[in-house]
Amino acid sequence: MADNDEYVPDFDISKPTIARVYDATLGGKDNFAVDREGAAVIAQHVPRIKEASQDNRLGLKKGVEYVARQGIDQFLDIGAGLPTMENTHQVAQRINPDAKVVYVDNDPIVLAHGRALLADNKSTTIVTADLREPESILGDAEVNEMIDFSRPVGLMIVGLMMHFHPSEDPGSWIRTLLDACPSGSYLHITDFADTGWPEQKAMEKSCVEVLGNGWARTPEEIEAHFQGLPLVPPGIEFPARWVGGVENPDVPAVEDLEDYQRIIMMGVGYKE
Ligand code: SAM
Fold this sequence. Notes:
By secondary structure, the protein is an alpha/beta fold. 38% of the residues lie in helices and 12% in strands. Helix 4 links the parallel strand 1 (74-78) and strand 2 (100-105).
């Protein structure tokens, strides 16, 4: 879209959106000048923002691979984002070609681009809905066509929780979704980390400046998203250090990580 701003009047291009700014940070083309300006402001505070966004994608990929390898063959990916490299359906369907994926996003631009990408893929679809209204996701006809809630589900809320202030009680939305998923389901989350490193505060400050949201959380606060579900080892970790199912993986020390590798933390929980 970088070259076609004048042809796409249907979207509000006066304000940056989360999906488009994130796309701009990843070097994508599905964004407008206002989003690129927002990404540039973030880059002033977090010079390696592109790698930080890629690190979140690493967290997405690791979690999807782990969950798919446990035999989960249906994924509900909320806050899907604009299509990029290694989307959830590509990662999951590489492990299980029959895996079904439903993408959910509240930004209509994601639907427009997602539909084009998924035109030939009968096992994957995308719907416009809001995590703030979990019942509308659970009641959506397309979601129910693809996801059988009597069988375990891979529920993904990746790169989204940071956009909700704790006062909104996002945990209640997650609880509603988890209640609809049977035992054997997994919950996979990434969030902005707050473990005292300055780059984490820089990320929070610049995101809040550009988007009005983007709050960092302590590992304990991130763990609380899981509503008491046991976490797959190693628990809440930076993506570079998360190896699913391995208690003490042989990975770099936190001190040896690059700045951009300390912005995101991830976890995967299991519903017993
Ligand atoms: N999950 C992808 C990833 O981690 O690479 C994309 C993350 S992107 C930072 C967050 C996405 O969540 C955006 O596409 C945005 O439109 C979407 N989003 C924001 N608020 C939402 C909400 N309340 N309900 C559903 N989607 C939302």
